């Protein structure tokens, strides 16, 4: 009789454990179905763009994974309680063991935590190309991401050489994701026109050559494909200074030139210099030419008064 009672008790425990496992499975399936439905609705919604969709996935998928683990761990603890196992000593031993293991495996845990951080933040995913740099900006590697595992990240460069970097090391480096340049909300700024204006000063003895310089530069501006000619462009005598004759230039780059704005500025400045040299003129203070960011050059008479340094004959301002 006692044997039958014991068998019945075991059958009841097994039934309860089976029900807990079934309940965990049902909850996980419902969660996965709900997450899939949310992602599908985001994709089908024409009002959302790819950037917001990916941001939504970066939040929902990690939360879904953590929710799955929470459900599984809760089910395991409930099953142990049904089987009559006292969880208090187990949790105590587990806590002490966790401290010991944590102290002896800090590097491993650091890689795992960094891997979890990479998984949640997703600065890159498999298939994307990244530039990895040190904190000072020194380039370490340019490669494609092959796999992000819990402990390390696998990459392959343009010569198909494989690289494996511990996640803890990777988390301390600067990562530039080339694959996401066109997805940035700020890219539209680089597709708009940008204004560039600068002032150049030529010598007073070249006054008779000024008209030729202005005409040549106007001709250059009318032919240059980098300039947005739907907006006003100006090149004119802007005034007289102690240094010489001031020529002011104001142009706007077109969208393609805005993406390489430094090259655009160089082209504008270089061609003005070419026009000046072509006419046989020269810049004032030619032995000391220095570009400033909107700061007007000081004059020799001001050095003793306000300690303004003697700057050059050309200043440039970009917006």
From TrEMBL:
Query: What's any one GO cellular component for it?
Result: membrane
Coiled-coil stretches: none
Keyword entries, A-Z: Membrane, Transmembrane, Transmembrane helix
Q: Which chain regions cross the lipid bilayer?
A: 6-28, 59-81, 87-109
Q: InterPro entries this protein is in?
A: LSM_dom_sf (IPR010920), MscS_channel_2nd (IPR006685), MscS_channel_TM-2 (IPR011014)
Q: Which residues form the Mechanosensitive ion channel MscS domain?
A: 108-179
Residue ranges for the region (Disordered) are 295-319
Q: Which GO terms describe its biological process?
A: transmembrane transport
Extract the PANTHER family matched here. MECHANOSENSITIVE ION CHANNEL PROTEIN 1, MITOCHONDRIAL-RELATED, YNAI-RELATED MECHANOSENSITIVE ION CHANNEL
Write down what this protein is called.
Mechanosensitive ion channel MscS domain-containing protein
Q: Which organism is it from?
A: Coccomyxa viridis
């Amino acid at each position: 009789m006692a044997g039958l009672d014991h068998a019945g008790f075991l059958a009841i425990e097994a039934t309860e454990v089976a029900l807990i496992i079934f309940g965990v499975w049902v909850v996980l399936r419902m969660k996965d179905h709900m997450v899939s439905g949310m992602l599908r609705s985001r994709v089908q919604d024409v009002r959302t763009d790819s950037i917001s969709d990916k941001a939504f996935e970066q939040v929902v998928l990690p939360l879904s994974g953590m929710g799955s683990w929470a459900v599984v761990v809760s089910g395991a603890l409930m099953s142990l309680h049904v089987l009559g196992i006292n969880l208090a000593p187990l949790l105590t031993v587990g806590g002490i063991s966790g401290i010991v293991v944590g102290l002896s495996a800090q590097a491993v845990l650091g890689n795992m935590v960094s891997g979890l951080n990479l998984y949640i933040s997703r600065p890159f995913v498999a298939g994307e190309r990244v530039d990895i740099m040190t904190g000072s900006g020194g380039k370490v590697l340019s490669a494609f991401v092959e796999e992000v595992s819990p402990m390390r990240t696998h990459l392959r460069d343009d010569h198909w050489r494989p690289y494996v970097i511990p996640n803890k090391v990777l988390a301390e480096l600067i990562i530039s994701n080339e694959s996401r340049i066109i997805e940035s909300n700020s890219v539209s700024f680089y597709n708009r026109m940008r204004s560039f204006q600068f002032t150049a000063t030529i010598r007073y003895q070249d006054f008779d050559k000024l008209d030729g310089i202005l005409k040549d530069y106007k001709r250059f501006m009318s032919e240059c494909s980098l300039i947005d000619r739907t907006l006003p462009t100006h090149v004119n005598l802007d005034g007289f200074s102690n240094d010489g004759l001031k020529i002011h230039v104001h142009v706007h780059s077109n969208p393609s030139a805005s993406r390489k704005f430094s090259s655009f500025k160089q082209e504008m400045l270089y061609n003005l210099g070419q026009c000046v040299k072509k006419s046989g003129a020269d810049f004032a203070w030619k032995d000391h030419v220095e570009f400033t960011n909107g700061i007007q050059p000081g004059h020799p008479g001001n050095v003793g008064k306000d300690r303004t340094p003697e700057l050059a004959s050309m200043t440039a301002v970009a917006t």
